[in-house]
Design brief:
Layout (H helix, E strand, L loop, with lengths): L1 E7 L15 H16 L6 E4 L3 H12 L7 E3 L8 H9 L4 H7 L1 H17 L9 H16 L7 E6 L1 H12 L5 H8 L5 E6 L4 E8 L16
Parallel strand pairs: 1-4, 2-3, 2-4
Antiparallel strand pairs: 1-5, 5-6
Amino acid sequence: MAKLFLVRHGQAAFGEDNYDQLSELGHQQARWLGEYFRERGVTFKRALAGELMRQQDTAKSLLAATDNPPTLDIHPGLDEYDGHALYASHTGSADVAGHQKRDAVDYWRTFRGAYQGWVDGTLVGEHESWADFGGRIQQALNGLCTGLSREDNVLAVSSGGVIGTTIAGLLQTAPRSAIELNFQFRNSAFCEIIVGRSEWRLSTFNALPHLDRPDRRDAITFV
């Protein structure tokens, strides 16, 4: 069966004014994942990433380490939700980076409240709706997976919110479960999804085989 490999970006710049950039470790995580795919003979017919630099740079570093990589296409449907907009709608403040630096634990507690309100439809403010977010993700992935043969693999590189929402939809779980799936997902981890004619099935979730060795355990990160 055709397979979709859905990958989260490598470690980014949490707590910095510009989060949307990979750290040196983030690039290395992506290269190691590409090497893992190459060693196992996994090649990709198509590759897609969102517009964010952390997504694109992860895809480029990953693909550079594989055999016969395809051209990387960019689709805004794989962009992450606007966390700054959700935070501002919930708190009335735009000082996201400042809150992260002052107290990361309290920031995540506050942001979770914003996220829950967004999913529940109770968050008031200027931000994309939860329904529109899910719709654009599905449109991007449907386009990526159209016309695949049984032996084809395709790659999509995005972010935790996109992945959590996708998996919650596949499993037909309660909408709020997308939040927990998002916050569990580790940098450069992947989901393996079997793409059938009539349905998609989750085969692997949050996998990090390229980091599952003693000398790379310190390279397992979440932001």
